UniProtKB/TrEMBL annotation, chains A, B:
Quaternary organization: Homodimer. Probably interacts with PlsY.
EC code(s) of this entry: 2.3.1.274
Principal localisation: cytoplasm
Protein name: Phosphate acyltransferase
Family listed: Belongs to the PlsX family.
């Protein structure tokens, strides 16, 4: 339901730093964007963190959850034994209509499992997938899947493409998103078996399919949606973040090596700051988990305050734009979503 | 055989630009490094290109090859029908002892096929793999495989690790290379099935195995060898190149937007140039194909003059260091190379 005051359920216990990072990040978002926060987790820890900040005028509710999910917990065990964990409770708030979206920096397998089990999938979607917005030389590109599925089938890749196509249209406002499959050569027939079969499905679809794209094409801005398996996408995402960070550090090191370059740096500081923002992944913050009947934004475990801030902003924007409603409507009407799957099952049944 | 005047067979017809880029790139390397060039391909085109350059004092031989391999040619067809192609002839020169190494920017599937068929594999190596040196914040890292095998088995990954370990020791001089598997989480048990099984083999081996590493760890310089499947590695390599290039362009765009930042740029130009060199992939040029009984350096199809120059330099360095001889001796003595493979075959036979 679109609203101007989104209620965002934030998994306050998630991430490597828990409430000490998640709470201030969420508060910043609430100050800027006018959303209501439902901070889910251990009330004592959350209240202790809240006491350190100025929360005047903000709409905040603390929702108790007695259990904490660790990075070692298996998704199946969380569903069975940790029903009062912060992520499980946060998803229930959305299911029960008490919140409009969830943000979590916790164990992403747990978030996926709770999202699927508590919120359910959009009809026809086999596998929810994590989408990520990456900066490019021009407009952002959507990379999907960045980690929800490490063994996706070719028609899963196609479903990821369909979902990201809708996302690019509704959230980024792209008219006819240019869709490509991430592979190791542009020509048809390049890639592993999974990619080759997916190519054939995409080619027959209604998507604006450009064919295979290579790693080097992602950042030029000439492609809008890049589809891949969750293993490849996760490696690609983390590699991009790591390389951008390392390049930033190397640049800083070089610029502060001599008096002359230090002086130059002072004069060019505005440009360098804009460059840093262009390539700062914390600006983008979270990855929407597409294919669920509800808005779920997944953050890095290592998220800092700024990244959590961005992720809560993203959840609010999704609510305000009714992004998930539009995704549900576009996919539920969409015969293509399951057509190739049904064709395949029929062929195998013969 | 180590020598101070390596004879490098250069596939002059390879790459998107053919002799117009390959010949001047090779000439630059010959001028700097003192190697003998055997330029293989269409004599008319090669001579026409040579006529444009000053070749005085250089040791150059043109070796005729009447056929050209295209990007569309299948490796099996090249072996059968294109025995007089430039890459096939170049590999034969090494086999016959007339050259010490091959450099090609042509169809890499063809190079792999000719390398395997003409030169043969090192005993015990199942799958030759492409290694790539990537710049990091500290010393270079070896990424293997960057594209020779898109469907590698877990014990293939282990063989890649063993080969890259030897490479890091002999060419980079690393004493006890820290080896990791590229995955989507550091904990054991993270990743796809291929990675999980490989983890177990690496753990039992004599390698200095650090466990799983993530994309973000590649560029910190805290790991020396990163092992992955050729699909993932190729995506990772091209993505790194693309992102570094795009970041460079974005930085340049920002730095030339205002008078003040332009002035700053002039003052910091030395630092910016050093930064560009740190992240310029053409500096690294080629990827050695490990596991063959001979030195083969594979370049990008899109290689520029500088990249070809670097690749011929790399081939010369490999010859001078007897890198392949040391690889052959280290691997031939190495029981581990086939131990896990034999264990597996025995287990399956029961």
């Amino acid at each position: 339901m679109p609203t101007n005051n989104p209620r965002i359920a934030v998994d306050a216990m998630g991430g490597d730093f828990g409430p000490s990072v998640v709470v201030p990040g969420a508060l910043n978002a609430a100050r800027q964007g006018g959303c209501t926060l439902l901070l889910v987790g251990d009330p004592d820890q959350i209240e202790a963190e809240l006491a350190k900040h100025d929360t005047k005028g903000l709409s905040i509710e603390v929702v108790p959850a007695s259990q904490v999910v660790t990075m070692e917990d298996k998704p199946s065990e969380i569903l069975r034994r940790k029903k009062d964990s912060s992520i499980h409770v946060a998803c229930r708030l959305v299911k029960e209509g008490k919140a409009d979206g969830v943000v979590s920096a916790g164990n992403s397998g747990a978030t996926l499992a709770c999202g699927m089990f508590v919120l359910g999938r959009i009809e026809g979607v086999e596998r929810p997938a994590l989408a990520s917005f990456l900066p490019t030389e021009k407009k952002p590109v959507v990379l999907i899947d960045v980690g929800a599925n490490v063994d996706a089938k070719p028609y899963h890749l196609f479903q990821f493409g369909l979902m990201a196509d809708v996302l690019a249209k509704t959230v980024l406002g792209y008219e006819k998103p240019r869709v490509g499959i991430l592979s190791i050569g542009e020509e048809e027939g390049k890639g592993n078996i999974q990619v080759k079969e997916a190519y054939d499905i995409f080619r027959k679809s209604s998507l604006n399919f450009l064919g295979n794209v290579e790693g080097r094409d992602i950042f030029t801005g000439d492609i809008d949606v890049v589809v891949c398996d969750g293993f490849v996408g996760n490696v690609a995402l983390k590699l991009s973040e790591g390389l951008a960070t390392s390049m930033g550090r190397m640049l800083k090191g070089e610029l502060t090596r001599s008096i002359l370059s230090k002086l130059g740096t002072v004069l060019a500081i505005g440009a360098l700051k804009r460059f840093k923002r262009l390539t700062d992944y914390a600006e983008y913050g979270g990855a929407p988990l597409l294919g669920l009947s509800g808005i779920v934004i997944v953050c890095h475990g290592k998220s800092n305050i700024k990244a959590i801030n961005s992720a809560v902003d993203m959840a609010s924007t999704f609510v305000k734009n009714d992004a998930n409603g539009r995704l549900v409507r576009a996919l539920s009407r969409n015969e293509e979503l399951t057509m190739f799957l049904r064709t395949r099952v029929a062929a195998e049944g013969q």
